Amino acid sequence: MTPDLPPPLAVRLPALRTAAHAEPLGLYLHIPFCLDRCTYCSFATTRDRSLQPDTTARLITQVRAWGAALDRPAVDTLYLGGGTPSLLSAQELADLTGALHEAFELGPLVEATFEANPGTVDLAWLQGARNLGWDRVSLGVQALDDALLGRLGRIHGAAQAMEALDLAQQAGFRRRSADLMVGIPGQSLSKVVEDARTLAATGIDHLSIYLLDLDKACPLRAEIDAGRLALPSEDEVADVFEALQAELPRLGLAPYEISNYARPGGESIHNTRYWERRPYLGLGPSAASQLGDFRWTETSVIPAWIEGRGEVDFQELDAAEALGEIPLLGLRLHRGVAWDALRQQAEDRNLRPLTDGWEARLRALAKEGLTIWEGDQVRLSPRGMLMSNGILQMFV
Fold first, then answer.
1. Is residue 384 within 8 Å of 363, Cβ to Cβ?
2. Is 237 in contact with 183 (CB distance < 8 Å)?
3. Which of 9, 113, 192, 393 is the most exposed place for a label (fewest CB within 10 A)?
4. Are the C-beta atoms of residues 123 and 167 closer than 8 Å to each other?
């Protein structure tokens, strides 16, 4: 059995198999259902739950088909994202988990994460997920202020978010992560720091700090464009990030990536593979995959994806593009990039002038306090992290 592959993937299936067996994969599954749509959301999601049975069935078919097409490769991280994976019924989650075990070699598995909305979980569902082998839960808390949560269109309140974290612990999840959003209209610096302290006190081992992103059309963007709401200024947002950079390590949550903080051993192994440019397979509407220098994204049109039609966006990176992604992604990590190794890869690909040019610019940024060189390792400084979007443009 092979999945329905567009011609660019079908003709490269031998190369994809080789890349899939070079090292264990990360496997991402997109669950596109939500009870309601957040006012800032531009993801591939739907409130039409009537599509859920067919979507789950199609996803299971894809899991089995890709497992066969790639000759049952090893997988060491699983991630159920969305949307709201916690809207899967207990049976749907069991069926999907069973298909994963049948189709892929999960012996190397070290992490199995699912995202959950605090307004959709109960103890029985969480215990069922834990019994199936899911060992890490990422809860979309976003804020501990009911007014701000209402502005974001979230279906939960602050008390329900705290209860969900407690239920996850009762269900046996030692690895619990929470999301906190920065830049919400009406949000104060002191409240963000207070929320971070409250979340850290629950014993979570991971906290993600996300800047509210309104670059695509969404209801909240329309409210701001109409002048009914105002975003915090860039300086105010920078002040929040700087305050969190100082406070979170004191709470035991050390930075390991621009937006992510963790206790020792609590880092997201699956997400780290993206920044390390390691291989992953994404299944579901809008899901992205990267095997070797091949990258593709499934259609985001959910009915079309269910029916096995719709355009797949395929890209084969050339040598310069692939090389540029190493610092583009790696500098997001607090440990940075081993420059001697990158320079050697450039030498092997006859691209040494490219890395020489990047190095000159990164060393100039060190004089401005934006990068730090320690031997052959280069990383962004705390201030450089705040200005990372502009800095990383040099690798695009």
1. no
2. yes
3. 393
4. yes
CA dihedral (195, 252, 165, 241) positive or negative: positive
**Which listed CATH number (3.40.1130.10, 3.20.20.70, 2.40.50.100, 1.10.10.920) goes with 319-396?**
1.10.10.920
Residue 150 parent element (H or E): helix 146-152
Q: Are 184 and 152 in contact (CB under 8 A)?
A: yes
Q: Is 180:195 a contact under the CB 8 Å cutoff?
A: yes
Q: How far apart are CA 130 and CA 275, in angstroms?
A: 27
Identity of the amino acid at 325? E
**6, 78, 155, 162 from 94: Cα distances, Å:** 30, 14, 25, 26
- Decide if 3 contacts 282 (C-beta within 8 A): no
235 by Cβ neighbours in 10 Å (0-12 / 13-18 / 19+) ranks as exposed
Consecutive H or E run containing 366: helix 352-367
- pLDDT tens per residue, range 62-75: 999 999 999 999 99
> pLDDT per residue over 191-225, tens digit each?
999 999 999 999 999 999 999 887 777 888 888 88
Domain boundaries 7-275, CATH class:
alpha beta
Per-residue pLDDT band at 37 (split at 50, 70, 90):
confident
What is the biggest distance separating any 2 CA atoms in the chain, rounded to whole angstroms? 58
Go through 245-283 and write b for each residue having 16 or more CB atoms within 10 A of its CB, e for each that does not.
bebbeebebebbbbbbbbbeebbbbbbbbbbeebbbbbb
User: Across residues 38-60, what is the average pLDDT?
Assistant: 90
Numbered ranges of CATH 1.10.10.920 in the chain: 319-396
Q: What are the beta bridge partners of residue 181?
A: 210
Q: Which of 312, 381, 386, 324 is nearest to 349 (CA)?
A: 324
* Bridge partners of residue 51, in order along the sequence: none
